[in-house]
Amino acid sequence: MKKSILAVLASVLLLSAVTLGMTNACSSSKALVTDDEGRSLTFDGPVSSIVSLAPSTTEIVFAVGAGDRLIGRTDYCNYPPEAASVESVGGFYDPNKEKIVALEPDVVLATGMHYQTGDAAWLEEKGLKVLILKPHTLDDVMEHIALVGKLTGKEAQAASLVESLQSRIDYVTERTAGLADSQRPSVLHITWHDPLWTVGEGSFAHALIEAAGGVNVFADIAEADAQVNLDTAVARDPEVITVSTGHGDAMSEPYNWVIASDSPFRETSAYKSDRVHLVDADLVSRGGPRIVDALERYAEIIQPEIFGEAS
Fold first, then answer.
1. Do domains 2-165 and 179-307 have the same CATH topology?
2. pLDDT at 162
3. What is the C-alpha to C-alpha distance for residues 143 and 135, in angstroms, rounded to an integer?
């Protein structure tokens, strides 16, 4: 992981130098970027207007210092607070495509879901440029930060951010890499309780659990999100349980269900040792810069002897 991120950082710094040289040589320069579907798009210099269809990319745009370029975001893009002043283009699953076209952005930052549903193709048919970003790992997030930096002409800011985030990642992973299997507690991450939903190998939560020194009890599931049998989850006897915050009035409902006196998990090691923790769903599920906050939170939860007790 460290080697690949250093390569990303080096490429970003090199790109900054190349871009600066091209700017001195001529009034504008073209930017070629490749998205996660392997599609290459060319832009006539840094983009000046962006529509983001995912909270993760909205956070990245602001983090590299290009928040003033964002002219459209979804109803779920609630961070940073400045995002609230940007015009909404609807929901994550059902964006208002006609409104997006009317905004005439230089680029639309979309996800794999929008590619699969045909929303991205529809926007492209209307003449818009769409980049598909579908991160699954910490490395992917760093690469997307670099990509957005390149796209917006904020390469230096992106490189600095990647360097800072990677330093924090390394602090955790260098301390957990040498742990023996017996030192890695089993972890169940619950995203909803009725019915029971958890995470598999393809999720950010899985990556965070493993990097923070734990073992995902449902690592044998390939899907990022999966509904599982309650009895199976209990039988796997997790030593740690993390529960995502719910939405709206149900913010703490899944957590309260797990810690209740009649909890179905009351015979598990996690329940008996008081190792059931509430985690911010936005931090755990979004492939943006705050995913490193989530990693640090998981490190405190899973390996308190190394990183200190989680609150």
1. yes
2. 98
3. 9
φ, ψ of residue 78 to 5 degrees: the values are -110, 10
Helix-then-strand count for the chain, H and E: 14, 12
CATH code 2.60.40.2950 for 179-307: no
Please give the CATH architecture assigned to the domain spanning 2-165: 3-Layer(aba) Sandwich (3.40)
Q: What does the angle CA 120 – CA 121 – CA 125 come to, to the nearest 5 degrees?
A: 120
The DSSP bridge partners found for residue 192 are: 197
Instruction: Report how far residue 282's alpha carbon sits from residue 152's, in angstroms, rounded to the nearest whole number.
Output: 25
Of 40, 47, 76, 75, which is closest to residue 61 (Cα–Cα)? 47
Retrieve residue 42's tokens. 């060319």
Determine the length of the chain: 311
What's the whole-model pTM score?
0.88
pLDDT in tens, 196-232: 999 999 899 999 999 999 999 999 999 999 999 999 9
Parse the chain into domains and list their residue ranges.
2-165, 179-307
The model's pLDDT over 63-120, given as tens digits with 9 standing for 90+, comes to 999 999 999 999 999 999 999 999 999 999 999 999 999 999 999 999 999 999 999 9
